[in-house]
Amino acid sequence: MHRPSTLLxxxxxxxxxxxxxxxxxxxxxxxxxxxDQLGEPELPAWAFVDWIGTQMSGLELCRQLRDSRAGRDLHxxxxxxxxxxxxxxxxxKAGADDYIAGPxxxxxxxxxxxxxxCANGKGAPPRGRLANGELSIDLAAHQLRYRGTPIPLxxxxxxxxxxxxxxxxxxxxxxxxxxxxxKDEEAIDERTxxxxxxxxxxxxxxxxxxxxxxxxxxxGYVMDSIES
Length: 228
Prior knowledge:
228 residues; alpha/beta; Rossmann fold; Arc Repressor Mutant, subunit A; 2 domains; four-stranded antiparallel beta sheet
């Protein structure tokens, strides 16, 4: 995910939308309603979904967003109610990229934005192209290709793969990967990284692409170089 251009905030949180509009005039802040009312937000876009919504549950909204054309490329963060392991598991299963503990307030949201921007400033790959064997990434176009054929990836999985391709043959712990993706280390469970990696692997396999990621027991993950 590049730096977000658009933030989508639950429509009932009018004061938060107003505060964000004032504090971040460089961002487009829009109300998030039902998927069929979403329109076509300028990408990259980041949606925050309440666990308990006024019109439907956050899990159902997340599922419908993922099934919609406008929502499939969103980065979705679910705002958890209790924040226990079962809620985290269900949020990721519904298609969320990550989660934060509720309630959704300005300070917590801005802190997440700052973490993301700080991670991008320190560890984001340069704009251009990266390659490993017949896998190639066009960073400017935000596109992965295998033998020239595009492979769609969610923002989290794209950034994860880009990071590994820039730092191939290096082992990264789950905590390090959470930090590199600009997440809150205290809020994100290390096992969430396994979900991200699993989604990435399934996307590669679905398009007949090789999986260069290797799990290193007790340490984390590494991307092995592939001979062209």
